[in-house]
Design goal:
The chain is built from five helices and four strands; from the N terminus they run αααββββαα. It has a four-stranded antiparallel β-sheet with strand order 1-2-3-4, with helices on one face. The termini are far apart.
């Protein structure tokens, strides 16, 4: 992580100096996708739920990381569920892509690992989908909350809507 952060600081310092157009373009072009995680990752790591761990396989690629969720209560207690997270080029206008790598039976996770979580939707009918004000921390907390309480709430909602 420090490698990319120090690179960005060094590039910011180059902005003020006069260099040839081609040299300055090649050193200053860092996408929003790479800049925002540099700011968000320290906050994410400082506010992780105790049941979550984040691992960055390549410290120069903060846009690709693994999240491990180890529930301490509920149906999934004792399990260790790894999720792969990739921040797309259009971040923060679009949500990160998250996939559960462990096979799990869960009403919000398909057999192939796609996760159905409103804040991971680009557009949501209920208004709780992705917004540019959301951060990686929101994603981690949302994934951590996928447990029996959400399942029970969804069942109760469907009963109210469709079975009365």
């Amino acid at each position: 992580m420090l490698t990319l952060a120090s690179k960005l600081k060094r590039e910011d310092g180059l902005k003020g100096s006069r260099m040839s157009a081609t040299a300055s373009d090649s050193t200053r072009r860092v996408s929003v996708r790479d800049r925002l995680p540099v700011k968000e990752v320290p906050e994410l790591e400082a506010n992780l739920p105790c049941t979550c761990k984040v691992h960055f396989p390549d410290p120069n690629k903060l846009h690709c990381f693994q999240l491990t969720v180890t529930p301490d209560e509920g149906y999934y207690q004792g399990g260790k569920f790894q999720c792969e997270t990739e921040v797309p080029d259009a971040y923060n206008m679009v949500p990160p892509k998250v996939k559960c790598l462990a096979r799990i039976w869960h009403p919000n996770i398909t057999e192939t690992g796609e996760i159905c979580l409103s804040l991971l939707r680009e557009h949501s009918i209920d208004g709780t989908g992705w917004a540019p004000t959301r951060t990686l921390k929101d994603v981690v907390w949302g994934l951590n909350s996928l447990d029996k309480e959400d399942f029970r709430n969804k069942v109760e909602d469907y009963i109210k809507r469709y079975a009365r």
